[in-house]
Amino acid sequence: MKGTVLITGGAGFIGSHVASELIRAGYHVRVLDSLVTQVHGETPGRPGYLHPDAEFMLGDVRNPEILDEALSGIDAVYHLVALVGVGQSMYQIAEYTSVNNWGTALLLERLMKHRVNKLVVASSMSVYGEGLYVTPSGQPYEHASRTVRQLKARQWDMRTPDGLPLHPAPTPETKQPSLASVYALSKYDQEQMCLMVGRAYGVPTVAVRFFNAYGPHQSLSNPYTGVLAIFGSRLLNGKRPIIFEDGQQLRDFVSVYDVARACRLALEADEAQDQVFNVGSGDKVTIEEVAYKLAKVLGKRLEPEITGNYRVGDIRHCYPDMTLTERVLGYKPEVTLEAGMSDLAEWLERQTAQDRFGEMQHELASRGLVV
Ligand SMILES: NC(=O)c1ccc[n+]([C@@H]2O[C@H](COP(=O)([O-])OP(=O)(O)OC[C@H]3O[C@@H](n4cnc5c(N)ncnc54)[C@H](O)[C@@H]3O)[C@@H](O)[C@H]2O)c1
């Protein structure tokens, strides 16, 4: 036995795969999860996909007594609990701040009593806001943004204030954060709070900034997250995926199996401490292309609908520079988008998906967050 690891939020999409990855590698895993309804449905129980050897504790990370119980006998912690809807975070501000920021603060206070050898906290590409760009003369440009006027005029691509075109480039961990949603703010808060407290108390701490993770177990009933899960739910219900802007937004879709491996490496690599790492596939793809690919692997003849609408705070292009993660963690992505999508399609075909995209769209539109 290599040690006992607590995964907060371990019954969720990424956490369940991290649990399996660690159990396969010889760790004992305890999961603490409150099984929130939006992710797990109205009458949730221990998810069937959770590895049978994982110990499961039902409870809220904001309950100090439950945290004390969960942390007893633990050698390392993965803090994966979060509410994860970018758009929803813009109106459920108190709840997002309570779970993501306050929940992390409470966990850190309890960790002063229960000392662990490593803390790994899940962060997100959303902390970057727009990714890195370069000017026509090849200079890096970190502060790309679009005004509402540009968006209203459907001028999707980035320009400098004097109108020069900007080209997207891989985003390194050193790029200044640009926080465009309450969710992004809370992820930055989570990672920085963990790094800061870890440093102060000598707990080796690592933050992993996930890009667009996809794969089996992603909630199909949560319309606020996981673009491939949302497209998958639409397609399974015979509906066309709906795409904002012109569909040419660039993203990095990373298989959840690769994400889980990166998480294990973050625990095991001694040099990985007091640092932040990008976790992606190293490949970029447009949203339109990924919608076509998913329809194809699912055998559906449903073209995406490109609406030309936009969501407040949406990012045009962001994909990672993986140099640091590859060097320090020894991580190399292993699952190609083609292989990962086939695996996802196989899983999707066995699910009944509730398509709640319309509901989400209505919630955001009624608050002026989709235009
Ligand atoms: N999925 C992605 O592409 C992605 C990208 C970037 C970052 N992340 C981060 O990775 C982590 C895991 O995300 P995921 O996609 O697996 O989401 P998920 O919603 O599937 O998992 C989160 C889990 O946390 C649990 N949870 C929520 N509030 C809780 C509380 N108060 N107490 C206890 N448990 C609670 C939920 O029940 C759920 O099982 C999150 O921190 C998220 O911000 C995910």
Describe the secondary structure blueprint for this structure.
Blueprint: E1 4-8, H1 13-24, E2 28-33, H2 37-40, E3 55-58, H3 64-71, E4 76-79, H4 93-113, E5 118-124, E6 133-134, E7 140-141, H5 148-152, E8 167-168, H6 182-201, E9 205-210, E10 212-214, H7 227-236, E11 242-243, E12 250-251, E13 253-255, H8 256-268, E14 275-279, E15 285-286, H9 287-297, E16 305-306, H10 323-329, H11 337-348, H12 357-366
Parallel strand pairs: 1-2, 1-4, 2-3, 4-5, 5-9, 9-14, 10-13, 11-16
Antiparallel strand pairs: 6-7, 6-8, 12-15
The protein binds nicotinamide-adenine-dinucleotide.
Nicotinamide-adenine-dinucleotide is lined by residues 9, 11-15, 33-36, 39-40, 60-62, 80-84, 99, 103, 122, 124, 187, 210, 212-213, 219, 226.
